Amino acid sequence: MKNFFIIALLFYYSYATAQSNNIIKVNPKKKVYLFFKSPIVKGVSIPNKSLFTFDSENGASIGIVTGEKNKDSNLLITTKDGLTYSFSLMYSKSLSKLNYFIEKNIATNYTSDFATNNTNTKKDMNFDKNGMIVLGDTPKKQVKTIDNTDNEALKAARLEKEKLEAQIRKEKADEEIKLAQLQKIEKEKAKEQKAMLLAKKRDAKALRDAKRKKERALSQMKRKEARAVAAAKRAEEKALRAQKKATRKKEAAIKKQAATKIDIAKNENTEKTKIVSEKVVEKKKVVSNEIPKIEVVKDDVVEKEEVVQEKITQNDVNKQVSSFKDITLGYADKGFGLHASYNKFLKKAYYKIGLDASFSKIKKDTYKVPVNVYNVNAGYYYPLMHKTNFNWAIGAGGLLGFETVNGGDDVVDDKIIKAKSNFIYGAYIGTEAGFKVSDHIGLVLKINQNFYLNSDIGSQAPYFGFGIRLLN
């Protein structure tokens, strides 16, 4: 009971002063070696007693300490010289020190008097079978004395110490090898990670390059399409200018041909008039010379003039046009158009049945939408001026037709124009002038204004055309 009380008192004292004693960093992966000046008698770790080991049979002065993961412990050690040591075992992931050489002055019960009387104390101190200090009187058979002349024991202790030191150095070398291997593995991992990072960077760069290449290709494609559209537009404008130029040339040629025919007709009429005048002069001379026969001649002339007038009237009636056909080409609303008609005289006025076609492009923002209109029309025209070689008339009528938008495709972008292909109807007013070139051919100038009641494009559409007239 007395020994138990002393042990409990020592445990309590070591536990109470643990925070101010030496600190040893430990972990479960590595062993920490403690070297004492005197052989170890007893070692206890709290709360886990398996953390500290030593060779108790051979009286070793070296102890081995390990630790628990994320747990701190206390260690209490008693040596044969009667000193008690208290340590705090603290968990650390990495250990910078694996060997501790313990001096006597860090013992919890060390004093200067103890250092001077250490020999006598050792002689008077006894231990039980468990290696704990026994206080008080003890039978002499239990007293152990130390013979300083026991060289064999000292040699054996030195050999044991050298053996343990060699083992420690070997284990330290093994640990250094393992540490080097771990460092090598870590370097290889770092190298692999660096290679992976470089590969990722290369892949990212390749993706960026591919994206930029794709964007450049799309940009080039858009520029090519824009250039192609611009070229097509220029070609279309050039073709339209060429067509207009050809039309002007054709009109000039027709006008020149008409002027030539008119000059020829005027020359013929002048020559005929001259011949008639000469004959009249001759007849007047004859008449003047034959005064007695003047009355007879006058009667003959009157009769002849009546006959000539009757012939001229008959020729005019025979030569009067009963019907004619017009074909014109000209400007329609924002495009060009064609007109063909059949005309039938009824006394002075005439009726007209015609076919119209216009081809336009409605501009919206930067786009042009093609719009084609086809219609049939009928109307009544009244001449305001009617001469042998010239005719001018005005008229009006109704029309019915079909309007196509975007080539008949109903799908049109709402942002461009909102329109659909459908049937249309309405009315028109117009005026036209005809020039007679010969008995069967003439020229015509036509102006119409169409009015649509249900068109999606516009309610009005003008037409200016010039063409030929076929006389019957």
Structure described in brief:
This protein has helices spanning 2-16, 112-116, 118-124, 151-289, 294-319, and strands at 22-26, 32-35, 40-46, 52-54, 62-65, 73-79, 84-91, 99-101, 126-127, 133-134, 323-332, 335-346, 349-364, 367-386, 390-405, 422-436, 441-452, 460-471. It is of the alpha+beta class. Strand 12 (335-346) and strand 13 form a beta hairpin.
Q: How is the secondary structure organized here?
A:
Elements: H1 2-16, E1 22-26, E2 32-35, E3 40-46, E4 52-54, E5 62-65, E6 73-79, E7 84-91, E8 99-101, H2 112-116, H3 118-124, E9 126-127, E10 133-134, H4 151-289, H5 294-319, E11 323-332, E12 335-346, E13 349-364, E14 367-386, E15 390-405, E16 422-436, E17 441-452, E18 460-471
Parallel strand pairs: 1-7, 2-8
Antiparallel strand pairs: 2-5, 3-6, 4-5, 6-7, 9-10, 11-12, 11-18, 12-13, 13-14, 14-15, 15-16, 16-17, 17-18
Average pLDDT taken over every residue: 80
* Terminal CA distance: 157 Å
Provide the domain count: 3
Extract low-pLDDT stretches: 8-21, 119-127, 129-150
Radius of gyration: 67 Å
H and E order: HEEEEEEEEHHEEHHEEEEEEEE
The percent range for strand residues is 25-35%
How many β-strand stretches?
18
CATH architectural grouping of the largest domain: Beta Barrel
- CATH fold-level label of the largest domain: Porin
What is the helical fraction, as a range of percent? 40-55%
Overall form: rod-shaped
CATH class type of the largest domain: Mainly Beta
